[in-house]
């Protein structure tokens, strides 16, 4: 899903204005900021909300040390599942469940520095081909610091989007990860862009960064000309170095989403993981703050709302689920299944119990 053209009169805000606005967390200032961001979302992206689903195709045993991540081998007793790459059949089956739940994009996510083994690449190629042939989904993959030849193979197989989160601002990255460099991430993202992928690149807020660093991060995303920005809020995971990080406030979360929208009006802003723990029963405010997309189903190592709850949250705001490019073939029939067997590899037991449906 590529960026939208900007209607006349809508321009990205400057870095100075972004640094001023991201501090507007008092009730009146935040309400005004969100109203402005919502108006931009409506003018550029309309009143439809895109849903994205993922599958955790390979989990745990990662040699990297991202401080928020349960899947790093550097941290013990995190409780993250550990398994090798699932096969193409299971990837396709997961994609079909996501499609039934309303997703228009589906990402195959693998732990580890990168995917380079032949058998794993072949499984991904087969899954991507079949997802293109058997569903209406736009396939995406999140496979780490991929290099150009492997990315080119996946592009040839029909992969449409490449996801790689930068996680945070360059000036804060050393506090988050020490096993790879920010520039290595930029190399992967730029290679994907040059190969013609639509870029899905964002990160996690609330990892100890300052408000100015959130703006610095968004400026990098803007320079990279990303198509879609997944915004996550830290959900401190047990056993990780960030297990005890104090959450940022709901107001800070919403101000950041609104500022990202105003800085990148043409891009899709998806609010993803951590909305449950950071926004509680006001998760629907992400759309008021300018988001035009969100995740449906479970995350990699934590539970999300059920598809039914997500669809109800969107409709409760007077919004609709954005159809795929071929709505007549789309498996979503307007009624999301409640519980599914999709992406249930995430640890159970921490499914949020929220009253988002009012
Ligand atoms: S975020 Fe990705 S690269 Fe970092 S530790 Fe987790 S699985 Fe590994």
How is this structure best described in words?
- By secondary structure, the chain is an alpha/beta fold.
- The protein has one domain (15-321): Aldolase class I (TIM Barrel).
- The chain contains twelve helices and ten strands.
- The protein has helices at 15-21, 27-45, 88-100, 118-134, 148-157, 170-173, 182-194, 211-224, 250-263, 275-279, 285-288, 307-316; strands at residues 48-58, 105-110, 138-142, 161-163, 198-200, 203-205, 228-233, 268-271, 293-295, 320-321.
- Strands 1, 2, 3, 4, 5, 6, 7, 8, 9 and 10 form a ten-stranded parallel sheet that branches.
- Helix 3 packs parallel to helix 4, helix 4 (118-134) packs parallel to helix 5 (148-157) and helix 8 (211-224) packs parallel to helix 9 (250-263).
- The two termini are 30 Å apart.
- Iron/sulfur cluster (SF4) binds next to loops.
- Residues 62, 64, 66, 69, 71-72, 111, 144 line the site of iron/sulfur cluster.
Key traits:
10 strands, disordered C terminus, ten-stranded parallel beta sheet, 358 residues, single chain, TIM Barrel, 12 helices, binds iron/sulfur cluster, globular, alpha/beta
CATH class: Alpha Beta
Uncertain stretches: 348-358
H/E topology pattern? HHEHEHEHEHHEEHEHEHHEHE
Secondary structure: helix percent: 25-40%
CATH topology: TIM Barrel
Tally of contiguous helical segments:
12
Mass-distribution shape: globular
